[in-house]
Here is the input.
Amino acid sequence: MASKPAVAKRIPTAARTLQPRPASLDGAELAALEEEITRELAPQGALQRSVAANIARNEIEIRTLGARKSLLFWGAAESEMDKRLFRHLDRQAAADCARAWAAGSPEAAAAIAAHDIDPEHALNAAFIETAPIIGGIETQIHRLEHRRRQLHADLRRLQDLARALPEIEDAEVVSDAG
Here is the structure.
């Protein structure tokens, strides 16, 4: 009997960008990310800081939407795999194996292959189920990426302008009372 190709490696093209199932970002991680992005942009002055903050918020929203998209897809894939595994395993074992598979466990992928289940079918079913919602999320991400590129261009122009202007010396307050 010929050996089957590694089933865990066969993933539909549309699902490849959604692997592995991401962990959710918590508030502290998002705040740290915003601070890091703003620091890297090195804004000088209130207007540049405002633009940099908008860039950071756009980046965070893009990453959050990407994580939601992946979680949505992998939740559907896990559910679909659970249904397929339930034909071979008890309810709890099927659910545990499906959860581990969606998290990227090689052991779960091997167990699925041992039951002669092709994960590509579960992934395709999940993609079909989630495609309309994922399409909407993708549209939002593309809009945010466009806006982020515009903001980066605006920040570069502001920074170039600030470098081109001569520095104004501090003024001295002079009182005629006296």
